[in-house]
């Protein structure tokens, strides 16, 4: 391939773009990432990486380098009081861990600390290339003498260059150029206008007995959220503008100081104001995720209010869903129809995520809640139902006619199931001599057939290409234990099996051991649903 020809052009060096680069490089796919700014984003925004996102990052082997950057687990709490100094404050744990459902715990890392770490990981692995201070200015599809692809114009320190790529991932944020060029609408609404006041103040002693991730503060002067950056010196005051207020009302530094001191509850507190910037919390989902060779991911595809910390997580999971499909298409192992399942799966997920974030915002801003809504709001301190239990209703899998489990609170309540379209459930197992999660047995470049019990027949004889077979049960060669638990959670009898995609989603479930013809036919259905070629 010539110097400026790539399999994939990634536009945007935020979390979605950096993760795309990491995931593509791991699979040996040549990509170029262009980011218009000179470096990663300097301002704190996202803070929360969910347990599912940590599972994904673990699969890309970047979780270990991130954990030391995280705030202590004891900080996973919500504080409510008249100010930080309020002796009568209340404090509730949020996002509690549940090692029965995920090996990973959610972590808190401020985005301006996370992004350089992701960048370092992306720079470490080849063949992905990253160019900062480089802006995409133009993009067109080209079926010319070169093989079909896209011609992009990028402006960087060396002037304007032309780059060719087979595919483009538009990870270029809410104002996406790729989305505009693709002519894709971004319908929705603005939910709130806000200002972020960033400041430095030594609050270590004040919060030492009440450390939390988010401090909700309500008094006569402020009704606001104080979000942590490092939970010691650096803080972000998030003020939602009231009716009739304008950004100009917050431009005066004396006003900013007054708000900060009122939120902290210490008159005369020594404060160094860092910056104050307006932003709008919106609820929008792109009408399409793909136009020809252009694909959208992250905030380019969906934006939501920050309540609940869902936006960046959704973007990283877009990438996880997209990359194995893109790799299969680039390698000629799947037809392009597989890329249409990206939108089929991820767009409804975004619609739900955005709606849940809006609901979180409404609960936070409501002047008063009914008893029922108060209980619901409190239940949302756990988000396993959304994060681990969310499932696809159509896409690259074979539905088996069963119904999804019903739960009282779909946001918080989670029932692990091996139903097609769901994340394959976690189970503690011993694998290659290590105590680990069954999820660690899956491979990112192949499908995995999990068979209940020690016998691999008739599956081994009809295994599709690029598929590994793992037996789970007493006496099994691969995972010689946990048969009863595995069968119960996955809904299998001995000899039944599930086929798991490279992104950990169940593609097929055969509850009972079939004969050879039945096994071959059901696996062929799954191969077809995943648009994979018969020969690999
Ligand atoms: C106050 C706040 C708090 C938040 N808290 C959370 C949270 O706790 N958890 C959570 O999950 N999410 C949270 N979010 C949302 C999260 O910050 C975003 O969802 C996330 O940054 C989106 O990542 P992205 O990579 O898709 O887009 P971005 O981070 O917006 O990155 C897009 C990149 O593309 C670049 N770009 C744009 N156009 C071009 C071009 N033409 N050429 C080259 N480069 C270009 C931009 O410079 C930018 O760097 C929060 C957001 C805010 C504002």
Short overview:
Pfam families: FAD_binding_3, Rng_hyd_C. The chain has helices at 15-26, 51-59, 63-66, 111-124, 177-182, 204-207, 253-264, 311-330, 337-365, 371-379, 384-387, 483-490, 516-529, and strands spanning 5-11, 31-34, 48-49, 77-81, 90-93, 107-108, 129-131, 135-142, 149-156, 159-170, 188-200, 214-218, 223-228, 234-240, 272-285, 290-291, 294-296, 302-303, 428-431, 434-437, 447-452, 467-472, 497-500, 506-510.
Can you put this structure into words, describing what you see?
- This protein is α+β, with helices and mostly antiparallel strands and 536 residues long.
- The protein has three domains: 5-70 and 109-185 and 287-362, 3-Layer(bba) Sandwich (FAD/NAD(P)-binding domain), CATH 3.50.50.60; 188-283, D-Amino Acid Oxidase, subunit A, domain 2 (D-Amino Acid Oxidase, Chain A, domain 2); 428-529, Glutaredoxin (3-Layer(aba) Sandwich), CATH 3.40.30.
- Helices cover 27% and strands 25% of the residues.
- It is built from 13 helices and 24 strands.
- The protein has helices at residues 15-26, 51-59, 63-66, 111-124, 177-182, 204-207, 253-264, 311-330, 337-365, 371-379, 384-387, 483-490, 516-529, and strands spanning 5-11, 31-34, 48-49, 77-81, 90-93, 107-108, 129-131, 135-142, 149-156, 159-170, 188-200, 214-218, 223-228, 234-240, 272-285, 290-291, 294-296, 302-303, 428-431, 434-437, 447-452, 467-472, 497-500, 506-510.
- Strands 1, 2, 7, 8, 9, 10, 16 and 17 form an eight-stranded mixed sheet that branches. Strands 5-4-12-13-14-11-15-18 form an eight-stranded mixed sheet, sandwiched between helices.
- A hairpin with a 4-residue loop joins strand 12 (214-218) and strand 13 (223-228).
- Helix 1 packs parallel to helix 4 (111-124) and helix 8 packs antiparallel against helix 9.
- The longest helix is centred in the middle third of the chain and has 29 residues, at 337-365.
- Residues 11-17, 34-37, 41, 45-48, 111, 135-136, 171-173, 177, 196, 279, 298-299, 306, 309-313, 315 line the site of flavin-adenine dinucleotide.
């Amino acid at each position: 391939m010539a110097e400026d020809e790539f399999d994939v052009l990634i536009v945007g060096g935020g979390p979605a773009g950096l993760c795309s680069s990491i995931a593509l490089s791991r699979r040996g796919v040549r990509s170029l990432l262009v980011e218009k700014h000179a470096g990663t984003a300097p301002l704190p925004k996202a803070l929360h990486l969910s347990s599912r996102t940590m599972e994904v990052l673990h699969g890309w082997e970047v979780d270990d380098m991130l954990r030391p950057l995280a705030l202590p687990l004891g900080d996973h709490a919500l504080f409510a009081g008249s100010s930080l100094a309020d002796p009568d404050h209340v404090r509730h744990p949020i996002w509690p861990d549940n090692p029965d459902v995920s090996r990973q715990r959610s972590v808190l890392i401020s985005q301006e600390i996370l992004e350089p770490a992701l960048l370092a990981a992306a720079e470490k692995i080849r063949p992905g290339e990253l160019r900062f201070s480089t802006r995409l200015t133009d993009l067109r599809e080209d079926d010319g003498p070169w093989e079909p692809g896209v011609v992009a114009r990028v402006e960087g320190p060396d002037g304007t260059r032309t780059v060719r790529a087979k595919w483009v991932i538009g990870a270029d944020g809410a104002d996406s150029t790729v989305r505009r060029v693709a002519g894709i609408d971004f319908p929705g609404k603005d939910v709130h206008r806000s200002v972020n006041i960033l400041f430095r103040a030594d609050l270590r002693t004040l919060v030492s007995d009440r450390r939390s991730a988010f401090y909700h503060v309500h008094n006569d002067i402020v009704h606001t959220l104080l979000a942590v950056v490092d939970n010691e010196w650096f803080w972000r005051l998030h003020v939602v503008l009231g009716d009739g207020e304008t950004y100009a009302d917050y431009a005066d530094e004396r006003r900013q100081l007054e708000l900060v001191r009122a939120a902290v509850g210490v008159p005369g507190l020594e404060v160094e104001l860092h910056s104050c910037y307006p932003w709008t919390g919106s609820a929008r989902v792109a009408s399409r995720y793909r136009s020809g060779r252009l694909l959208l991911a992250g905030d380019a595809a969906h934006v939501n209010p920050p309540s609940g910390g869902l936006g960046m997580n959704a973007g990283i999971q877009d990438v996880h869903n997209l990359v194995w499909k893109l790799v299969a298409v680039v390698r000629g192992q799947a037809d392009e129809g597989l890329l249409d399942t990206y939108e089929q799966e991820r767009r409804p997920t975004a619609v739900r995520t955005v709606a849940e974030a809006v609901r979180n915002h409404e609960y936070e801003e409501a002047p008063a809640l009914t008893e029922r809504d108060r209980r619901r709001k409190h239940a949302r301190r756990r988000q396993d139902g959304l994060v681990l239990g969310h499932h696809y209703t159509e896409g690259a899998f074979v539905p088996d006619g069963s119904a999804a489990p019903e739960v009282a609170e779909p946001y918080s309540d989670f029932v692990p199931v091996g139903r097609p379209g769901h994340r394959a459930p976690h189970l503690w197992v011993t694998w290659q001599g290590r105590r680990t999660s069954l999820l660690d047995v899956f491979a990112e470049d192949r499908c995995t057939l999990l068979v209940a019990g020690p016998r691999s027949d008739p599956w081994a004889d009809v295994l599709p290409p690029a598929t590994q077979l793992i037996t789970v049960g007493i006496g099994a060669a691969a995972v010689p234990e946990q048969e009863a638990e595995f069968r119960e959670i996955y809904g299998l009898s001995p000899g039944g099996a599930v086929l798991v995609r490279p992104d950990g989603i169940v593609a097929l479930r055969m509850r009972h051991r079939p004969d050879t013809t039945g096994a071959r036919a059901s696996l062929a259905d799954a191969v077809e649903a995943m648009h994979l070629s018969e020969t690999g």
